[in-house]
Design a protein that fits this description.
The chain is of the alpha+beta class and about 170 residues long. It contains six helices and five strands.
Length: about 170
Amino acid sequence: MATDEDILRAAAAHYYEACLLFEDEDLDPADHRAVLLAAFRSSDCDDFAAALSLATGWESVRMTWLTRHGDAGHHALVRSPEGRLLDVGGWTDPAALRRVYGAAAGSVTLAPGAPATSNLGGLDEDGYDEELARLVGVIRALPHAPYGDPGFRALAARPIEGVDRPAAAAPAP
């Protein structure tokens, strides 16, 4: 059985290539947590937020902004029932994300809305979604708060269609 570190390492290797993170010369491919943070705070935030919403049942939200240079940007994440925002890095808020993305003051908006996913929902003939399973595996394996907290782990362990196959019924006696 794969350990949490094995799951994170394999996912990081996948996203390092899939998200073209090898173009970032400062990113160490062996630092799987840094690779996953880079992947899900850039090109694949929509898919991560969609998977996180499925795993928790929490609302997906979309933060949009303008940079100081006038470029538009967005980041998808979820909002807990208490109103806290969560992305791959853990609990966050608009001010912290504004700093991460270099958003211009006063340009940030936060609104409910499903992420524009592109890679999820591709069930194979067995009803399995490989990309969704990889994302949920990351969510279930991240060690930092709140992901590593027992209550969060129990919440994220709920069965998800396309990821978790029902246990086979015991044979009749």
